[in-house]
């Protein structure tokens, strides 16, 4: 049901997705959920290393990610698909250009500060940091903004992430994002449009 429903409130106090319900325990926020699952199920060490300094590197990236990559990459979907879908009006191209400029700055920092000359963000093996990064960076790709095309270092990193996860699982996980343009063909309930349009516009400010 809708994320603001009474049932959603029982799973997440924030009434937002993603949310996890594990028995009587509930948890919100994607990063917290990933860390919880990695600890509960004793996942291979490379995902969230037991080495205190390597783990700190994962934490460092996750902290930076929210106000940089995550602050910019998803906005490409809102501008090109979601806001026009709910408002019935396309946004001016200048708005997308502004977001892409901010994303370009974040990508430059990502490559120079975090990726550097390493195979993955914290070294030679994939970690939760790479998973959190890639899922955001595939969102511009889904709406036709291929941020990997002119960035060979970033493109090779994406290829390594695909290989580490497994190509079939990688594309299965990103199937909805890569087909997001198909949403423009669906009919939205007018009342839902009225509720969500101002929320989406506010997210771009």
Automatic annotation (TrEMBL):
Chemical reaction(s) catalysed: RX + glutathione = an S-substituted glutathione + a halide anion + H(+)
The GST C-terminal domain, residue ranges: 51-192
Domain (GST N-terminal): residue spans on this chain: 1-45
E.C. numbers: 2.5.1.18
Root EC class: transferase
The protein's assembly and partners: Homodimer.
Stated family: Belongs to the GST superfamily. Theta family.
Protein name: glutathione transferase
Gene name as annotated: Gstt1_0
